[in-house]
User: Fold this.
Amino acid sequence: GNSVTQMEGPVTLSEEAFLTINCTYTATGYPSLFWYVQYPGEGLQLLLKATKADDKGSNKGFEATYRKETTSFHLEKGSVQVSDSAVYFCALDNQGGKLIFGQGTELSVKP
Amino acid sequence: EAGVAQSPRYKIIEKRQSVAFWCNPISGHATLYWYQQILGQGPKLLIQFQNNGVVDDSQLPKDRFSAERLKGVDSTLKIQPAKLEDSAVYLCASSLLGQSHTFGSGTRLTVV
Assistant:
């Protein structure tokens, strides 16, 4: 069946460092792909999405490109801030709107 | 617009007791989901409603879990009897048909 695999955390970075969180997926067809962010004590918030191959989703300085050839949707940000500390989840649309999530990657940004 | 409301925020119960969670989706959102998020894992779908009908409950442990969405608006998720492994955050989400999920803040259940 369809699945999502994320790089394990926690990831610890200094402020203004470059961020990459790897995400690969297994799916039949070409599902929509998502990144969600979960701040401490809060629910998940949609960060960005891409609906077809080669699409680039972007929001708040974060970017991810839908790569069909490598079945990947890696999350990147050029300069992280302390306020970006959170857990990040990669997900795919498993037909009919249902989401399959990766296990999450915790990011900690130090000043 | 108001977000997805869930209650309670926290619940502690003993194993074999019953518990119920409530969700009020965003007004007009026909699709409602319940996810279970065990500590250190990503959320896993339990059940999906379209209006007041069940679309997918294949991952719902029906021997102990039940859910309903009367009148196609609010929804309740019940566990009876609870087991230790049911300790998790239960997330409700809603969406317009074919659109992205909006999640509530979740209910953190601890079974002791």
